[in-house]
Amino acid sequence: MFGFSFDRRILYVILAIMVVFTLVQYATNEGALLSLVLTIPGVLIAITFHEFAHAFAADRLGDDTPRRQGRLSLNPFDHLDPIGSILLLFAGFGWGKPVEVDPRNYNRNISMEKADAIVSLAGPMMNFVLAIIFTLIYCALYKFAGAAFILSTYGNIILTLISTTIVINIGLGVFNLIPLPPLDGSKVIRPLLPYNAKQWFMNNENIFYIVFLVIWITGIAGAIITPIINFLGTSLLNLGITIFRLF
Fold first, then answer.
1. What is the Cα–Cα distance from 89 to 152, expressed in whole angstroms?
2. Domain limits for position 203
3. Does residue 112 lie within any of the structural domains?
4. Counting runs of H as helices and runs of E as strands, what totals does the chain give?
5. For residue range 208-246, what is the model confidence (pLDDT) as tens digits?
6. Residues with catalytic function
7. Cα-based angle 69, 74, 76 (whole degrees, multiple of 5)
């Protein structure tokens, strides 16, 4: 997934420190631990459908590599990446196990570069679609389930699961659209670049791996995408409320 042999080791060390520190905090806060547990279904849904969308798009464009590797599946365990999954669980943004494709297998209706961009874009777009669907479900429950359900413990858990799934899907979609390797956005933006900029981007890809590590480790990535996640989440909720006011 990453361009340097030591990248993954560095990430594991950093992630281990983050997880240990976070778990200590959760261990002293019962409510926070429960919140973490309720995040797990959202993480599984977001990653599974994200990677499935990559595999499905590649398959439809003529590359059977994901199909042969068993990635045309909605089994979460076929798609989980240890680092990306745990990061998504604790931080609200991350990634799944990359879907391997062979651009040479794409049909020739469009260029390999554009086909690769479509495959890369499919994952984040799936997450945004899921966020919309779960937002509509959330608003429908508030509209039709009644106060008894909403105020009950069971209802509160269901609504928390749904709202967390919305945030996780938005976070995964937005994070992966950052135009830096190894994220999907780096391939989505490539066909849009002028030729010279594209060549410079490809020739200096290793530099962008380092930039990605820096903005992730320092928290800059979170500072950039958190306002976007909040804005999109609020906008979807307002849209859902507006739609169900018509009923």
1. 26
2. 7-244
3. yes
4. 11, 0
5. 878 877 887 777 888 889 999 999 999 999 999 999 988
6. 51
7. 85
CB atoms within 10 A of CB 36: 16
> In the chain, how many domains are there?
1
Q: φ, ψ for residue 64 (rounded to 5)?
A: -90, 10
Q: CA 46, 22, 34 angle in degrees (round to 5)?
A: 60
**Residue 204 above 90 pLDDT?**
no
Question: What does DSSP assign to residue 245?
Answer: T
**Spatial separation of the C-alpha atoms in residues 75 and 72, rounded to whole Å:** 9
Task: Identify whether 109 is part of a domain.
Answer: yes
* 3-48 pLDDT per residue, tens: 333 455 665 666 666 666 666 666 666 666 777 788 889 989 999 9
- C-alpha to C-alpha distances, 120 to 19, 29, 58, 103, 129, nearest whole angstrom: 29, 39, 9, 12, 15
DSSP 109: T
Residues 81-135: pLDDT tens digits? Answer: 877 777 777 765 667 888 999 989 999 888 899 999 999 999 999 999 999 999 9
Evaluate the CA torsion angle 235, 236, 237, 243 in order and state its sign.
Answer: positive
Judge whether 207 lies within some domain: yes
Q: Which two tokens stand for residue 124?
A: 């984040």
Indicate if the alpha-carbon torsion angle 10, 12, 18, 21 is positive or negative: negative
Q: Give the Cα separation of 172 and 128 in Å (integer).
A: 9
pTM of structure: 0.86
